[in-house]
Amino acid sequence: VRENRELMSRAAALDVLERENASLRNALEIENEMGRDVIPANVFNINLGPDGYNVLLNKGLEDGVSKDDVVITEFKELVGVVSEVSGNFSRVLFVSDPEFKITARVLGYESAGIARGAYGEGMLLELITKDDEIKEQDILVSTGDDMFPPALIIGIVAHVEVNDAQTFKKVRLEPAVAGQRIGSVVVLKRNEGR
Q1: 183 CB neighbour count, 10 Å cutoff
Q2: Quick count: other Cβ atoms within 10 Å of Cβ 31?
Q3: pLDDT confidence of residue 180
Q4: How many CB atoms lie within 10 A of CB 153?
Q5: What is the C-alpha radius of gyration for the chain, rounded to an integer number of angstroms?
Q6: What's the pLDDT at 191?
Q7: Quick one: how far is CA 48 from the chain centroid?
Q8: Residue 175: its pLDDT value, please?
Q9: How far is CA 23 from CA 19, 134, 150, 185, in A?
Q10: What are the CA-CA distances from residue 72 to residues 8, 96, 167 (Å)?
Q11: Burial of 61 (0-12, 13-18, 19+ CB in 10 A)
Q12: Going by C-beta distance under 8 Å and a sequence separation of 6 or more, which residues neighbour residue 3?
């Protein structure tokens, strides 16, 4: 019985080390590709409360995280932006929160607008005119025209509504991180370069 417990304990420790190693490799690749300092982190809480989404990271001031740092997955899917930082944890303004906004464009087209959080609707893409090319299943990426680096995956167009009486289309997005378990993330530092 004792040997089994020791083996289980070693297997658990090995599993943690393998996951940590993979997370660090991914963070290093992102750091090299994006030319920004990064901090590997984990989401330890995500829920929707009366005051909006509550997304907490296990890294904070002690680890070098700062307000307005960008949080992404290992696949460069946008999670949000750091809104508050404490000693050993941080709060993230999630992409589906109405306070969240980012300049976005349709991958492969010139159509661009402002993507903003919309709680239960996911996200909305504003300022898309009737002449702009956009359809369901199109992918939205960051433009790099604001505090966010370019080419981060924001989401997928879920619905496009055209009303001839209105100048703009109503476009609803499904955030790239919607419906998936968010565990390991990468915090992109605001400062450009190294």
Answers
A1: 13
A2: 18
A3: 67
A4: 19
A5: 19
A6: 58
A7: 16
A8: 94
A9: 6, 35, 22, 8
A10: 33, 14, 33
A11: middle
A12: none
**Can you give the pLDDT at residue 50?**
66
Would you call 62 helix, strand, or coil by DSSP? helix
Helix (H) or strand (E) holding 28: helix 2-34
**Chain centroid offset of residue 61 CA:** 20
The Cα 161–Cα 134 span in angstroms is: 10
Residues in contact with 87: Cβ distance below 8 Å, sequence separation at least 6, in sequence order: 60, 61, 62
Token digits of residue 103: 């300049």
Angle at 48 between CA 80 and CA 151, to 5 degrees: 20
Torsion sign (Cα): 58, 141, 137, 125: positive
Question: Any bridge partners for residue 192, and if so which?
Answer: 36
- Print pLDDT tens along the chain (194 aa): 888 888 888 888 777 767 766 766 676 677 767 778 889 999 988 877 766 677 899 999 999 999 999 999 988 999 999 999 999 999 999 999 999 999 999 999 889 999 999 987 889 999 999 889 899 999 999 998 898 999 999 999 999 999 888 889 999 999 998 766 788 899 999 854 43
- Cα–Cα distance between 152 and 164 in angstroms, integer? 32
Six-digit token string for 10: 């070693």
Q: What whole-number distance in Å separates Cα of residue 69 and Cα of residue 187?
A: 6
